[in-house]
């Protein structure tokens, strides 16, 4: 009985121990799984946080790098300095800008605006003291005289007077003879014709005769453009002596390389700059118009002529060389700046951009075409940038010595 009770007790203990072992195993497995899950979550959270922090650091790094570069290159120019040098700033905005063809050219007098004065008799020519090239002359003013006193044929005025007086006497006598029918009517008409011819010739000379010979006068008011003979030279009847130009209208003749021939039909206007001035003239402001463009290149060159006509405002000299900017088809949404806003250093171009009221930065730009006044910006400037357009040179000088004072900051 005791033996049987012992066996039963052993079996109960074995069951209890088995149950505890299974529970412990489940608990260990559950705890292990929980630990692995917690470790995974912690690792994921750590990795996510690390990646997020790293991304934030990169963003902050890029931002700081941009601002750091701007601040490092910043030029301090106070409001008082800007006012003193007349500094001006313009906002970069897209707009219309014409395609441009650059060419060389020349200023010419317009046709019909000048006359050539020719010698009216043979003799020695003497210009008046004021008759120099470029001087203003009035209509009817004498610019020279021709004397034939020492010429073999004699003084033409004296000869014309003698011829006229002789013809007049013959005519008066013929009038009496024709009344008495001593001469025929036909003979009288011939005498009358000789008289009228001599009278016209004499009056033509007599009206221009002076102390020093026959006077040469200009028929129009204007400027003495050219003198074709020198003082004291012999001239013959009909020989050109001088040219007088009114210069009210002038012509601009551009010589365009033949490679642009197909583009010439789109040319509508032009800007130009003469060799003796930095001023840019716009035909649109001078009542200019396109007269013609050549249909072929010249025999001795590879250039096609394009001719405009415009009003002379008084400071444009005929004959001057011109740098011409032919304006073709307009293009929209082009960022341009005044040429004076751009500086150049060793072939690299820069502009100055305003950061705030007293802060500026020098920025490199890539240029496109220019029309003599404005230049296309291909890169380096964005819409809305505030660019210095006046006082650039003074700002450039300040860039070499500018230091950012403590406490100067920006709101970026």
From TrEMBL:
Transport as a keyword of this entry, yes or no, is: yes
Start-end of Basic and acidic residues biased regions = 26-39, 48-63
Region Disordered, as annotated, extends over 24-63
Is this entry keyworded Transport?
yes
Q: Name one GO molecular function term.
A: transmembrane transporter activity
Q: Name the GO cellular-component terms.
A: cell envelope; membrane
NCBIfam families xrefs: RND_mfp
**Protein known as:** Efflux transporter, RND family, MFP subunit
